[in-house]
Design brief:
Order of helices and strands of chain B: HHHHHHHEEHHHHHHEEHHHHH
Number of helices of chain A: 23
Oligomer: heterodimer
Strand content of chain B: under 5%
Largest sheet of chain A: 7 strands, mixed
Distance between the termini of chain A: 51 Å
Largest sheet of chain B: 2 strands, antiparallel
Shape of chain A: elongated
Strand order of the largest sheet of chain B: 1-2
Helix content of chain A: 40-55%
Number of strands of chain A: 22
Radius of gyration of chain A: 34 Å
Structural class of chain B: mainly alpha
Radius of gyration of chain B: 23 Å
Chain lengths: 682, 591
């Protein structure tokens, strides 16, 4: 898959990103930045304290210098590692932003004056409401709508898709984006955004994380982490009086080590990286989320509204069968159907021509000498067809054709009526073909359900998400397709306002609704939905109403978006659980080490049989720092998401990250202890 | 450990299991104002109460109004009790002519009974007149229990209601709690106690001639030891039975006598002992079912009950194991084995009538619930046996817990569990359809912080200050346990003590009173705020993707959260107190 600005998905270990991240992790030590992350700020303050103590001890030649130095160094590493995690997460976005910035480079715009003459101005001078003329080979200077003309446009700078797209005035394909290039023809564009607020600008800010705001759940989690930090701060601060009472006061290195090991540094250090990586994963799939809040909400979605066409079914319905009346040859029917459809430019019409060609080898013929008269489709007759050489061929909806032939004293044969009913009940659309007032047979148009949809909907159901198909079809047809595709429910004969009402109804029940849309009439519903994904091919109104834009304009993407949202939340929860569960082992490493000197009996709590009190404390601190580095890939990649029920998911994750979180540090600290004792570090 | 001992413990749990649903349904009906069999007798009384007090039965309060009403009510009640104590000399029902209670103790006791703690740093039979006991203390035993219960009910309403500010009427809920839940049971229970031999009278204390005069050594104020022959014993009397039921049923724990439930007039028979245990757990256990019923998920109620039952069994097993092992240092001098003649184990500070199993059970039950009644002295338990009550209270007394307080304490842990683990199902955390958001987390953390701060802060201060260590009667780690226990018990509103500590000093009376008030009312405010916040929210319908709050998985999660949050906070303190004491005892050193 292509990615924005052709910035291919960078592997986690890309050298340039890593180098930049290392630099950033140092500059992020600024306390003014650190204070936004209370957990790591406490670690930084602790590191500063031990550094001061180390200097004092050195000047007075007291204490164990090697131990103090190592503790202090690893405490600083803990802070740096956390900063590095965040910098790494931001790194990929920054790389993409650089590429996007090139596309934003200053261009010359031909602004039209009110009298129609053009003046050349730099694109940065354009304001909303200006009209510009863009010719083949020129860059479109800003976001806007085509008000005149049609052109093919290369949008690869934004979407990564190299095939050009058609942009034309009116309708749903009028939106153009600044930084894309016109390949052919000439268009007039009405600019709709001011400099600095264009889609490209917003995209750069988003991928860079500059406009990143903490999401509601992230804020709540931060409060929890800050609360836990205060609790452990209390536990450690009050431990000193107890220790003094017991006749075993502790030094600052040990107390800070205990504190840093207890407070949730693992999740505290990785939390913002997880959030940024979540946005990044959206971008990798060519989805631009306008806010982190939207990514988070997508994990919470209860109802997916899916448009039938293009999402559940392949594009438009196609002709799949010719069913002749009794005593009519199948080829004659196909022939007549093809003739009647030759001038029919609708996808359905074209599919009839194609089917006749493929199945019966009928090719388009040269009609010029036959003086054909094509009868276009009209809302009154609801038929189309052709008159040539005295043949009057008509095709249309069954009731329209029935009326047409009834006027000529004919009737639709019983068998054919049955046939029509069967097709309708099966979710297809029957068209009758008549020649000179006589019914020849039926064309069956059917929706082709995309492969694998049934399975995906089953997955969604297991995740507790209800899928709802939106279609303009009649209820009978809709029900048949819904059954075939495996969606939970459908809304038939839907108008845009019905969609809106449906969303409001579901939301009133407390549900979160996601939908996709592209047309201007989708805009209100997109804005109302909790997750509204606008197609990049859609109108400017739609793109502004939604809180995500899919650059691939693939409606099925909604399912992936939900999965990314869930993955983000699971990763957060898993690492929080892991972080808290880690504390058990750290207590068993540090508490006996603190007091075994005064009370050797307490050594029974040294379950890991760590070599010395110093090695025990150092090992716990080192483990605590290294685990942040070790979990960066997981934080950036996200915990693997499986579409199963909540109970199964919880059981699995509790087992891995809860129980695993209790056990892992016992093993890790023991190994580190063995290593540093072997190396005689402590 | 004996089969008989285990049978007592398991049979007790079975009885608690059996009363849970009927009592839970009854309470749900009472507070939902549904019909109950007591309505014909009590509705007229209730209506009369509202007419006299001008309470509008239909008025519903938002959480701030409800909390304010509760605080005002508690404040006025506390002041009244203080006045009664200070004026008892001139008030009736004082046959012993007891003097007025001195200010520090009067304040401490007023705080203690208002907060449902019933910490007693005095000897009741020589300090409090019958009037003070009945009008002052017993009144609080009822209303502080009722306040706890109605707050728990408000929490269940907060979860169950949607998009509303209204959480009920404090005056109506409290009145109904007193009339329907507490008073009828106390009436029946007192008669049961009287049938077992608990006294109920207004007589002056009886002086009895000893058949066998005792010679005792007395240490005078000057430090000189003299011997004295005692020929007479004063036997305290009083209206005990009527106060005994509410002492347990309202998880108050303040004994009529200093010896509390080890006194034969408070707890004369094995049956009365068992009945007291059941009374302590009945309402807290029933409330879990009420929670399930009100929120429409009885299975959730049972999952919470399951978590509580598990923690209870673990605690009682540990206490029973530790107590029946006895003291290794007595091995050569004393027969500590269980036999037909004795229950074995460590019997110091225990009633031989009850033995190790029943004493361990009582100690666990009274500290799981924030009762504080005792039938043995926790101070004299083995270090690990004594650590069990300590840990029970440190865990926030959420294992069944105090009446109401246990459920709303557990509610904080539920909110935290759901928030931490809830994300792991791929949705933002939600509890029974209510989203747990930053405001709720903030309030839940605040509640945990207040408890931690009160316990650790006060005891850390006391262990290094002379006025704190002055109260200690045993040095070393046991002294640390004593101080820790005093504040744990106060902040947790338990009221039991490591009785070795001398707590009737200005410092302890005041600091424990402050700890009790913080532990009660500063816990309640954030919890009520969560209830209010949840009630305002929409309810997300349950689906296969919702966080499961039923079944063994949720119970396990809840147990883990309670253990991790509780244990992690207090592990350092515990390791220097009871754990160290135990290890030193095993090494041959005791305190």
């Amino acid at each position: 898959m292509n990615t924005p600005g052709q910035a291919k998905a960078k592997p986690v270990g890309d050298k340039k990103i890593v180098l930049r991240a290392i630099g950033d992790s140092v500059s992020k030590l600024d306390p003014r930045t650190m204070v936004k992350n209370p957990v790591m700020f406490v670690v930084e303050v602790g590191s500063a304290l031990t550094t001061l103590q180390l200097v004092r001890d050195t000047l007075h030649h007291v204490g164990r210098f090697a131990f103090g130095l190592q503790i202090t160094a690893w405490l600083w590493f803990t802070v740096l590692f956390a900063n590095f995690a965040e910098a790494m997460a931001e790194g990929r976005g920054k790389a993409q932003a650089d590429t996007l910035r090139k596309a934003r480079a200053e261009t010359q715009a031909h602004r039209l004056r009110s009298d129609g003459s053009a003046e050349v101005v730099p694109s940065s001078k354009l304001r909303s409401g200006d009209v510009v003329r863009v010719k083949a080979g020129e860059f479109i200077p800003g976001d806007g709508e085509v008000i005149e003309g049609v052109a093919s446009v290369d949008e690869s700078a934004i979407t990564g898709e190299s095939a050009p797209v058609i942009r034309e005035s009116g309708g749903d394909r009028s939106a153009v984006t600044g930084g894309t290039r016109v390949l052919s023809d000439e268009i007039k564009v009405k600019i709709t955004s001011n400099p600095g607020e264009t889609f490209l600008d917003r995209m750069i800010r988003l991928v860079e994380g500059a406009s990143r705001q903490r999401t509601p759940n992230e804020i709540a989690l931060n409060i929890l982490l800050a609360g836990l930090t205060i609790i452990f701060l209390l536990a450690v601060v009050t431990l000193q009086p107890y220790a003094i009472y017991s006749g075993a006061p502790q030094n600052i290195f040990v107390l800070v080590s205990l504190l840093v090991c207890l407070i949730p540094t693992t999740i505290g250090g990785l939390l913002s990286a997880i959030g940024i990586a979540g946005m990044d994963r959206m971008i990798q799939r060519n989805v631009i989320a306008m806010s982190g809040r939207a990514v988070e909400a997508s994990g919470d979605v209860d109802v997916l509204l899916l448009d039938k066409t293009g999402t559940i079914t392949l594009g438009n319905r196609e002709a799949t069968m010719f069913l002749p009346c009794p005593n009519v040859d199948e080829t004659d029917l196909a022939n007549a159907a093809q003739l009647a459809s030759l001038a029919d430019e609708t996808p359905e019409g074209r599919s009839i021509v194609v089917l006749a060609k493929e199945k019966y080898g009928l090719r388009g013929r040269d009609f010029a000498q036959h003086n054909p008269v094509f009868i276009p489709f009209s809302a009154q007759t609801r038929m189309s067809g052709v008159d040539l050489d005295g043949r009057q061929i008509r095709k249309g909806a069954p009731d329209a054709i029935a009326k047409y032939i009834a006027e000529r004293g004919q009737q639709v044969p019983k068998e054919t009526q049955q046939c029509v009913a069967d097709i309708s009940n099966g979710g297809g659309t029957p068209l009758l073909v008549a020649e000179n007032g006589r019914v020849l047979g039926v064309i069956a148009l059917t929706d082709i359900v995309k492969g694998g949809m049934l399975e995906r909907f089953n997955h969604l159901r297991a995740m507790g998400i209800r899928t709802m198909m939106i279609t303009g079809d009649n209820p009978l047809t809709a029900a048949a397709i819904a059954r075939q595709a495996g969606v939970d429910d459908f809304l038939a004969e839907a108008r845009p306002e019905d969609k809106m009402a449906l969303i409001k109804r579901e939301q009133a029940k407390g549900k979160l609704v996601a939908m996709t849309g592209d047309g201007t009439n989708d805009a209100p519903a997109l804005a109302q939905a909790d997750v509204g994904v606008a197609m990049n091919t859609g109108t400017q109104a739609a793109k502004e109403a939604g809180n995500m834009v899919d650059l691939d304009s693939n409606p099925t993407k909604l399912i992936e978006i939900v999965e990314i949202g869930k993955q983000l939340l699971i990763t957060r929860g898993a690492l929080t659980t892991f972080s808290v569960a880690n504390d058990v082992a750290k207590y068993f490493a540090i508490i006996p080490a603190m007091f075994a000197g005064a009370f050797p009996q307490l050594n029974v709590l040294n379950l890991m049989r760590l070599a010395t009190p110093q090695s025990a404390i150092l090992s716990a601190v080192i483990f605590n720092a290294l685990i942040i580095i070790a979990l960066i890939p997981l934080a950036l990649r996200g915990v693997t998401y499986r579409p199963v029920g909540a109970a199964a998911l919880l059981r699995r994750n509790l087992f891995i990250y809860g129980l695993g979180g209790v056990i892992a540090p016992f093993v890790g600290i023991k190994l580190i202890d063995m290593l540093i004792s072997y190396l005689h570090f402590a | 450990m004996t089969a008989n001992g285990w049978f007592q413990i398991l049979f007790f749990l079975l009885v608690i299991f059996l009363v849970t649903k009927p009592l839970g349904v009854f309470m749900a009906r009472v507070f939902n104002r549904e019909k109950t069999f007591l309505d014909p007798f009590l509705r007229p009384v209730e209506k009369l109460v509202y007419r006299v007090t001008a309470v509008d039965e239909q008025h519903e309060m938002c959480w701030t109004e409800y909390t304010t009403a509760m605080l005002l009510f508690s404040g006025v009640s506390m002041t009244l009790l203080y006045l009664i104590e200070r004026l008892q000399k001139w008030l009736p029902f004082n046959p012993q002519k007891l003097p007025n209670v001195e200010p520090g103790l009067a304040f401490g006791t007023a705080a203690s009974f208002t907060t449902n703690t019933n910490w007693q740093s005095y000897v009741p039979e020589t300090t409090m007149s019958y009037l003070t006991q009945m009008m002052g203390l017993a009144y609080h035993n009822f209303v502080s229990a009722a306040v706890g219960i109605v707050l728990a009910i408000v929490v269940t309403r907060g979860i169950a209601r949607r998009e509303t500010e209204k959480l009920g009427n404090f005056w109506v809920d409290t009145t109904r709690c007193l009339l329907w839940v507490l008073l009828p049971m106390c009436l029946v229970g007192s008669l049961i106690f009287v049938s077992q031999g608990v006294v109920q009278n207004f007589k002056p204390y009886t002086a009895a001639q000893l058949l066998d005069p005792q010679t005792v050594q007395v240490t005078g104020a000057d430090g000189k030891t003299t011997t004295r022959t005692v020929t007479q014993q004063v036997i305290a009397q009083g209206p005990v039975a009527s106060q005994e039921v509410i002492k347990e049923f309202g998880t108050n724990g303040g004994g009529f006598f200093n010896a509390n439930s080890s006194h034969p007039f408070e707890n004369p028979t094995p049956f009365s002992n068992f009945f007291e245990l059941v009374l302590i757990f009945a309402i807290p256990s029933g409330l879990t079912y009420t929670l399930g019923r009100v929120t429409g998920s009885p299975r959730h109620g049972w999952a919470v009950w399951g978590a509580m039952a598990f923690l209870f069994l673990a605690a009682v097993s540990a206490a029973y194991w530790a107590e029946s092992r006895g003291n290794p240092q007595f091995q050569d001098y004393v027969d500590q084995h269980a036999s037909a003649m004795q229950s074995g184990g460590n019997l110091e500070g225990k009633e031989v009538r009850f033995g190790t199993a029943s004493s361990a059970l009582f100690a666990t039950v009274t500290t799981d619930a924030s009762c504080g009644a005792v039938n043995g002295m926790h101070d004299s338990f083995t270090p690990l046996g004594g650590m069990v009550p300590l840990i029970n209270i440190m865990l926030g007394e959420a294992v069944f817990g105090g009446v109401g307080a246990g459920l709303y304490g557990m509610f904080v842990f539920i909110v935290l569990s759901v928030f931490i683990a809830g994300l792991m199902v791929g949705r933002t955390p939600e509890y029974l359809g209510k989203k747990i958001e930053s405001y709720d987390v903030k309030m839940a953390m605040l509640a945990v912080l207040i408890l931690t701060f009160t316990i650790l802060g006060f005891s850390a201060f006391a262990v290094v200050e002379p006025f704190g260590t002055a109260g200690i009667t045993n040095p070393g780690p046991h002294g640390l346990s004593q101080i820790l226990y005093a504040y744990v018990s106060s902040a947790g509103n338990n009221g039991s003590a490591f009785a070795g500590i001398n707590a009737n000093t200005m410092w302890y009376n005041t600091s424990t009173a402050v700890a009790q008030l913080l532990g009660r009312f500063f816990m309640i405010i954030p919890i009520m705020a969560i209830a209010g916040s949840l009630a305002r929210k929409k309810t997300v319908p349950e689906s296969a993707g919702s966080f499961p709050v039923t079944g063994a998985l949720f119970s396990t999660l809840l147990v883990s959260t309670i253990l991790i949050v509780g244990a992690l906070t207090f592990f350092p303190a515990l390791s220097l107190g009871p754990i160290l004491e135990h290890l030193l005892m095993m090494a041959g050193k005791s305190f």
